[in-house]
Records
---
Amino acid sequence: MISTNSQKQLDFVKEKLRLNISHDSIIDLAIILGSGLEFTLPMKSSQILAYSDIPGLPQIGVKGHKGHMVLGEIEGSAKKSLKVLIFAGRFHLYEGYNPEQVQSLIQLIIGLQAKNLLITNAAGGIAENLQVGDLMIINEIKDYQNDGELNSSRGLLNCLTKPTLKVDTNLTSFLKSLNSSDEINLKQGIYAAVLGPNFETDAEIQLFRNQGCSAVGMSTYLEMKLALEKNLNVAALSIITNSWCQKGQPSHQEVLENSKLAQKKLDAVISKILDDIT
Ligand code: HPA
C-alpha cells in the first residue's frame, strides 16, 4: 500500500503538472538521471517542478544533482506525441535517507503509471572490458547496502551470500537487441551497489570482482527493487566514469566531468527507446 506521504506527493505532482490520471497511461517514459547527466533531446511544452516544492519529498544534498523533474513532449516515430518525465537528481542512503525516502521517486513513477522507466547512474568500472565513457546495461545488481539496514551485525555476511537482483524486463531485452554502432555500443554486467559516500578501497574492489561484479556505484538497488516488485518495465544503464583497472580511487569531480563523455551515447539510446514506444 502507498503511504499517506507518498499519496500526498503524488496528488501534488499531478496537480502541478496538470496530469489527468483518468487517461490509460500518463507517462510514456520516465528517466532518472545519474550524477552529471542531462536530458538534451528537444522537448515541447516542458514544465519544471522543483523537488523542494513537493511537500515531504527529501532534498538533494549532492553536487552534480539538480533536484527537479521536467515533464515534456517528444514526437515518437509514429508521429504520436510521447510524454517524457525526467528526474534530475535522486536520493541516496549515504545522505542519511531511509530506504522509503530513497524509493520516493519510484513511488511517484508508479503512481503516475509510467509505461517505461530508464534508470541511469554513474559507476566505476571494475571489469577489464569497461572504458570510461561506456554505457553498461545492468543485468543484475548485487546488494552491498543490506537493503538499507545499515546497523545489522550480520550485514556483511548477508550481502555476500544473498542472490543478485535480476533485471529481466522487456526494456532490458530491447536495449540488448540494439545493434552496435559508433554511437551505441552497450556493454552488460553486474552492478555492485555500495553505500558510499567514500570511494572503495582496492580490497573492496577485489572482493566485488571476485563476486562477479563489473561496475560499482552508490545508488539504483533500492529503486530497481521496488520498480521490479511493481512490475514496471524498467531498465538501468551505468555510465562508466572511472576505471578501477586503470587507476585507483576517482574524485567526485572526475566522476561528474567524465559522465559527460557518455551524454551523446545516452541520447542515442533514449531516442531508440522513444522510437520503439507506440
Ligand atoms: N565507486 C562508487 N561509486 C561511483 C564510482 C566508483 O568508482 N564512480 C562513480 N560512482
---
Amino acid sequence: MNIAANPVIEANQTVYLKDYQKPSYLVDSIDLDIQVYDDHTQVNAKLVMQRQTAGNLVLLGRDLELKSISLNGKQLTENEYLLDAEQLVIQNAPDQVILETSVVIHPESNTQLEGLYQAAGDLFVTQNEPEGFRKITFYPDRPDVLSVFTTRVEADKKFPVLLANGNLIEAGEAGESRHYTIWQDPTKKPSYLFACVIGDLAVLKDRYTTSEGRDVALEIYAEEKDIPKCHIAMEALKHSMRWDEEHYGRPYDLDNYMIVATSAFNMGAMENKGLNIFNTSCVLADEEYTTDAAIMRVQSVIAHEYFHNWTGNRITCRDWFQLCLKEGLTVFRDQSFSEDLQSAAVQRIDDVAVLKAHQFPEDSGPLSHPPRPDHFVEINNFYTATVYEKGAEINRMMATLLGKEKFRLGTDEYFKRHDGQAVTVEDWIAALSAGSGVDLSAFLTWYNQPGTPKLEVHGRYDAGAQTYTLNFKQSLKSNAKYPNLKALPIPVALALFDQATGEQLVLNSEALFENSVQDGVYLFDQNEASIQFIGVETQPIVSLLRSFSAPVNLEFNYSDEELAFLLQYETNGFNQWQAAQTLLERILLNGHDAQIYLDAIQKTLPFVIAKDPLLASRLFDIPSEGYLGSRIDTDYNPIIVNEAREALLNTLARELGNFVKDTYLSLDPVAQKDFSQAMGVRSLKNIMLNFMARQGDVDVFDLAYEQYQNTSNMSERLGALKVLVWNDAPQAQDVLQDFYTRFKDEALSLDQWFMIQAAHPKATAETIAYLTSHVDYDLGVPNRIRSVSGGLNANPVNTWSFGVQHFIHLAQYLDEKNPIIGARLLQALSRWYTLAEPQRSQVKAKLEALKPQVKSKNVTETLNSMLSI
Ligand code: B3K
Ligand code: ZN
C-alpha cells in the first residue's frame, strides 16, 4: 500500500512544537516478552489500547523485522496496515484495540547503543530515552503515552541476571539451559523509561526505609571486580533518598531500586523507573582508581537519576520539546544536593564554570537554541548544555527570588497537581506561581528565547545625598530566527562593601525583593531601570550577581583595584572567585598588569587555605585556552591565546617564589577533617607542583616521582603523572609504563592514561595516531573515544590544527555506527567561524566536504546548523 498518501514521518523532517497533537490511542497496559538468543532477539508485545481522539492508530518502529501482527485476535495481512521505515499505521481501527506483534531485533549487532544492545560479551542493556523503545517493539513511542508494563525476560542461563522495571513476580526454567523472569511495574510510565538487563553481573545490596516506612531493597549491579567500587554510589543513593524527603517532601515509591553499571553507554546515566542504567564512569568510585572530581561526579549523577523519580518519571514531559522541564529542574536539584557535599561555594563555582565554558559559547554561536526549543530534526541533538545547565539556572533564579519556603510551597503544588501526568513548562510555572503566591509567568520568556543577555550596570555615588544609585540595562544580540526578543526577569543578588574597612553594609532600598539584613535580591525585569540605596556614608564597592544569581554576561566598570578588593573582602566565595576570574581575563585578553592579582591573592590565600582549601585551589583557576577562545568572536588565533596564558603562568610561577614549594611541602591531605578539605589540599598540591616545574625547581621531578609512587590516591598519582609527562621529564616514559601496567584492566583508570597523553601540550598527529591504533583503543566504547578526543581538545592549538581531521574522521565513521556520539564530537569544531583566516576557510571547507558523506539525522542536523552562520 502506498504510504505517502498518509501522515508519514519522513527521514529528515523538522518537527515543530506548535504542531503538537494528542495521541489518537492510549495504552492501558503492555505485556512484553523478550527472548534473547546469540544471533537475534525475539520480542512479543501485547498492547491494550483505547482511542482518545480521532485518527489512525500509529505505532512507531525502527529496524524491526515484523513476524506477525494481530488486532483483536485476528491476524492482519500486509494490506491491512501501512509499514515504512519509521512506523506502522492502521487505518479505521476500532476504539478498543488489543494489538499483538512479534518482531525480531539484533541487539548483538547494535552499535548505536540505543534500544536493546549488547554492551559487552555478557551484558545486554537498554537505552530508550528519547526514542529507543521503537527499536525494541512497535509502540506509540512518545512521552505522553503512559502505560503499565509487565515484562518477561528469557535468556540462556549463562546470563544469570534478568532484570526489568518494577517488582519481580515470577521466575523459572524455560527449557533446557534457559530461564526467565517476569516483572511488573505498578506505576504508569512512558516507554522511554522502560529498561531491561540481561547479563552476568555481581551485586551490592543494601536497604533503605523511607519517611513513610517503606522498606526498599537497594541493588547495584556491576562486574564482580568492581563491586568494592560501588560503596560510594550506594551511600550517595541513600543520602539522595533522605535529601529528597527532607528538601522536597518526596519519598520513594517502589519496593526496590536497582542500578546497573555498563562500560558501553553513550552518556552518563539513565533514570529508567526503578532500574537505572549507568555508565561505569558515573557509578564506580574509589580513591585508588578514580579521581576526586570523578568521585564528586558519581555522587551527583546518582542523585540526579534518583531525583528524576519525581521530576521526570512520576511527572514526565508531554513532548520532547519540554525536555528542560525535567532536566533543568533535576540538574538544579542535584546541584543543590552537591552543595551539601562539599564547599558550597566551590560547587557553585564548578557549576558556573561549566555553564560559562559550554553553555555560553553554545548560546552565542550557530547551535544556539532556547532551553525549550521550538523545532528539531533529531531530538538526541538537544541534550545540550542549554537544555540542562541553562534550564537549571532558570529554576535557580526562581528559587532565589522566592526564597526557600515559598519555593517549597510552589514545588509541593506542582507535585500535587501533576503526579502521574505528562506536562509542559507552562504547567510547571503555573503550579510554582500558584503554590508560592508569586506570579512567575515572566520566567517563561527564559525558556522560549535563545541567547545570553548582556547586563550592563553603572554605579553612581552622591556624597552630598549619601545615596548610591545603580542603573541597569539589559540587551540580547539580535537573532534573525527570533526577531521579537523580550526583556527577561533577572534576579540580581547584591551587596555593598565599605572600601575602608572591607565590611559589608546594611542595604537600605525599597526596591529589593528579599531584603534580608545584609544581602538583597533586586528583580530587574525591564529593558532599563535603576535602584537607589540611601544612608550610604562613603563611596561603596558593589558586588553584583552574588552566587551568579542569573545566567547573564555582566558588564560593570570595575577598576582592577576594586576587583582585587572583592577578591580579598567579598564573603560570598563565588563572587570572590569571579573577581579573580575577571582580573585574570583582563590580564590574558586585554594585557592588564598581573601584579594586582598577585598581590591580592598573596594577601588572601593564607586565610582561605586555612578555612576552605578547596576554594583556595579555585582562586588559581587560570581561565583555560578553550574558555578564552570562546570569549573571542572574530579573528581568533589559538596560538596567541596560548602564548598569553603561558606567559601569565610563567609570571605567576616566578612571582610566587618560595610560596610555591613551601605550600607544597606544608600541605598534608591525610591531616584534613573531611573529604572536601582533603580534596582541596590535593588540588592545591598539584597546582604547586606545576608551578615548581615552571620555576625550573631542581627537585620538582623527584618530588613528582615520589608523589606518584608513594600514594594510592588517584588524584595524587595523576597530578604527579601529568607534571612528569607534560614536562617531558626523564621519568615520563617509566611512569606511563608503570601506570599502564597497574591499571590495564581498569577501564576508567586507563581512560586517564589515554587522556593524559592526548592532552600533552606538544601532542602531534602522530601521538593521536599512536593512541587511536593502540590495542586498548576501542571505537565501540564512547568513554575511550572521549578520553582521547577530550584530551586532544584540552589544547585548542592542537584542536584547530591536526585535531580538525581527527574530529571530522570520527563524525564520518560514527555517522552510521553511533550517530549520537558522532554528532556530539563534531561540536568540538562548532566555533570554526571565529577563527582568523586562512584557518577559518580551511576548516569550513573541510566541514563542507563532510556534508555529502554523512547520512544520519544527528550528524546532518549538527553539521547544517554549524555551517548556517
Ligand atoms: N535522561 C538521560 C539522558 C538521555 C539522553 C539520550 N540521548 C540522562 C539524564 O539526564 O538523567
Ligand atoms: Zn537528567
